[in-house]
Design goal:
Blueprint lengths: L1 H5 L3 H9 L2 E6 L3 E2 L5 E13 L3 E12 L9 E9 L8 E11 L5 E11 L5 H38 L1 H17 L23 H60 L6 H53 L1
Antiparallel strand pairs: 1-3, 2-3, 3-4, 4-5, 5-6, 6-7
Length: about 325
């Protein structure tokens, strides 16, 4: 199992081809100062996605921990960083592979994965990153599981058929000559491997993302409702101000007519003072109207931006689905 997944085996090459992974370049296993072994793989993934682009370069760092024991127990972490997708510098994925024997001819492969962040994005961007990432990871490991089951079936059939056994052995000998060197490990099994648990299940993570998206949509809907109520309130206040201005204007015309008819009673000084007071009131009404209009303009701009953001989010989800 370790040779199939972590060397340049024909199986992993076929798997890369089926996943549209090209230009694969791998370094040999190198021993680190702490005793772990490191291998770096660079490749290009063909995406053909209108959101993420046609392709992206990726770097995968595989760490074989020193607690691993040859033919008994393997623990490998694979850190995958994409370079050409949107917000690629915000996150990376960490996959953990644990291989343990279940019998003389069989072993058990346990894979756990997690999405790590180097810096925190906005909530909407984070939901899009997690939705796309978990969907891709689930598809990737389902395909890996299917190919491993098929490989197991082919090997079992070859072993059961004596006529094919010699061919199987010849193929395996050829593979051993062409494959890269398997890292040397101690033959004794570590006693501290009992605490290796999965970091998260892909399906569970996907459900959490869907619940988060539903909560986010509900929150945005409530926010939009509040904005609509605010706009209605501003419109009613503006209507009241307009009505008050019209009433004030009519009153001003009536007073002017009465002043013209009774000009012999009221002095010019009193008329001038009343005109100043009326002009001051009218300026206050106009000032309040201008303030309300500015608030209404700001609210409408915010509402438009919110609708644009929701439309982009819905469009991205529709494309991914």
């Amino acid at each position: 199992m370790f040779e199939l997944l972590f060397t340049s085996s024909r199986f992993i090459q076929r798997f890369y081809n089926s996943r549209n992974i090209i230009d694969v370049v791998s370094t040999p296993w190198n021993v680190e100062p702490g005793g772990d072994q490191l291998k770096t793989i660079t490749y290009t993934v063909i995406l053909n996605n209108p959101i993420t682009g046609k392709s992206t370069a990726a770097t995968e760092k595989q760490i074989l921990y020193k607690e691993s024991r040859e033919a008994q127990f393997y623990l490998v972490d694979a850190e995958v960083q994409t370079h050409d997708v949107p917000y690629h510098d915000y996150f990376y994925t960490l996959n953990r592979y644990c291989i343990i024997p279940s019998s003389k001819q069989k072993c058990r492969l346990r894979v756990s994965t997690d999405l790590k962040y180097r810096k925190q994005p906005w909530a909407i961007i984070k939901s899009l990153i997690e939705k796309n990432s978990w969907s891709s990871l689930e598809d990737y490991f389902r395909k890996l599981e299917s190919d491993l089951i098929m490989e197991e079936s082919i090997l079992n059939q070859s072993i059961e058929d004596p006529g094919k056994l010699s061919g199987l052995r010849r193929r395996r000998r050829t593979f051993n000559r062409t494959a890269e060197t398997v890292p040397k490990l101690s033959s004794q099994r570590s006693s501290g491997d009992g605490g290796l648990d999965a970091k998260g299940d892909i399906t569970g993570k996907k459900k959490e993302i869907e619940n988060y998206n539903t909560t986010l949509i509900v929150a945005m809907s409530i926010f939009l409702l509040l904005l609509v109520l605010l706009n209605v309130t501003l419109f009613l206040k503006l209507s009241r101000i307009e009505h008050a201005a019209q009433s004030f204007y009519r009153l001003h015309l009536q007073e002017e007519k009465s002043l013209n008819l009774a000009s012999d009673v009221v002095s010019r000084a009193e008329n001038s003072q009343k005109n100043k007071d009326q002009a001051h009131r009218l300026k206050g009404v106009l000032r309040d109207s201008i303030v309300m209009l500015e608030e209404l303009k700001s609210s409408l701009i915010m509402l438009q931006r919110t609708f644009d953001l929701l439309n982009k989010n819905k469009t991205g989800m529709a494309v991914e689905s």
